[in-house]
């Protein structure tokens, strides 16, 4: 890039639909035939993935089997009567396949309340109608976020306690 013509050629290539601007953006350029390769950009992409995996495994190493089961519930996996070894292997596979999804689930606001809602859905103490969450005929949220906020609201602690008691009684 010492030659002004090289700089001009470089900028022309960046504007072409046939040239993807970087390895990290290949999916944004489906019709590209060429790619501008920058070793530093490629290393940043790999480094971000390593950072995600490292964060996920850091959280994973501190988790109990019950917490692993909770993560699987929120990821949509039924872990019912699985052994702790199988649960640990499933969470490990989840981290290997998609560490950012694992981190997203772990960092969800109201994590424990979301798990409680899943458990209550399992025993039919809470119903789900479309995206609405209901206790009996009383709506507690129009989506999971509003249901979590409703149950975590100090004004609704009586409802939360009664739902927890229903869950304990079902076990």
Could you explain the architecture of this structure?
- By secondary structure, the chain is mainly alpha-helical.
- It has three domains: 4-35, no CATH class; 55-107; 112-170, RecA protein, C-terminal domain (Rec A Protein, domain 2, 2-Layer Sandwich).
- Helices cover 60% and strands 9% of the residues.
- It has eight helices and five strands.
- The protein has helices spanning 4-15, 39-61, 65-74, 84-97, 99-106, 111-122, 144-152, 157-170, and strands spanning 19-20, 34-35, 127-129, 132-135, 138-141.
- The strands form two sheets. The chain has a three-stranded antiparallel sheet with strand order 3-4-5.
- A hairpin with a 2-residue loop joins β4 and β5 (138-141).
- α2 (39-61) packs across α5 (99-106).
- The protein is elongated and about 75 Å long.
- The protein starts with a helix and ends with a helix.
> Any idea how many domains?
3
Order of helices and strands: HEEHHHHHEEEHH
Query: Helix amount, in percent?
Result: 55-70%
**How far from one another are the termini?**
70 Å
Unreliable spans are none
Radius of gyration: 24 Å
Tell me how many strands there are: 5
Strand order of the largest sheet: 3-4-5
Structural class estimated from helices and strands: mainly alpha
Q: Say what the CATH topology of the largest domain is.
A: Rec A Protein, domain 2
Named at the architecture level, the CATH assignment of the largest domain is 2-Layer Sandwich
**Overall outline:** elongated
Give the CATH H-level superfamily of the largest domain. RecA protein, C-terminal domain
Mean pLDDT: 88
* Strand percentage: 5-15%
């Amino acid at each position: 890039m010492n030659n002004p013509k090289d700089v001009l050629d470089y900028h022309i290539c960046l504007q072409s639909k046939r040239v993807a601007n970087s390895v990290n953006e290949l999916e944004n350029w489906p019709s590209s035939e060429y790619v501008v390769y920058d070793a530093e950009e490629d290393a940043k992409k790999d480094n971000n993935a390593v950072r995600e995996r490292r964060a996920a495994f850091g959280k994973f190493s501190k988790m109990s089997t019950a917490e692993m089961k909770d993560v699987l519930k929120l990821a949509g996996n039924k872990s019912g009567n699985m052994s702790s070894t199988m649960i640990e292997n499933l969470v490990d596979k989840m981290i290997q396949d998609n560490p950012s999804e694992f981190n997203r689930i772990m960092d969800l606001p109201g994590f424990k309340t979301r798990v409680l809602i899943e458990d209550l859905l399992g025993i039919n103490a809470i119903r789900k109608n479309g995206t609405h969450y209901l206790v009996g005929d009383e709506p507690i949220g129009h989506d999971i976020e509003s249901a979590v906020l409703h149950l975590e609201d100090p004004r609704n602690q009586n409802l939360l306690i009664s739902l927890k008691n229903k869950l304990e009684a079902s076990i």
